[in-house]
Write a structure and sequence with these properties.
- The protein is built from 3 helices and no strands.
- The chain is an all-alpha fold and 87 residues long.
């Protein structure tokens, strides 16, 4: 590898650092419930779920999974206690 230039100065190769990825976020059941309940308004669309998910830094697919758990009563709390929700 030629490390000289026309002016005679040496060029040092740049070492690339691996990208820094954020640690996986751990959310409490309460936090998941709050996100899910924000998507459970009457007439909510896939776009609304995606918008809420993005606002919380979560993938929309993950929110849909949490919604299934919520409906099954496996996300803590009691989904039946939310009056007016039709699943």
């Amino acid at each position: 590898m030629d490390t000289s230039t026309e002016r005679g100065t040496e060029i040092t190769p740049v070492r690339r650092q691996p990208p820094i990825t954020p640690k996986r976020q751990r959310r409490t059941a309460e936090g998941k419930r709050r996100i899910v309940e924000a998507t459970l308004v009457e007439g909510a669309s896939v776009a609304r779920v995606a918008r809420v998910a993005r606002a919380h830094g979560v993938n929309a697919n993950q929110v849909f999974q949490w919604r299934r758990l919520y409906r099954a009563g496996r996300l803590g709390g009691n989904p039946a206690s939310r009056a007016g929700l039709d699943f």
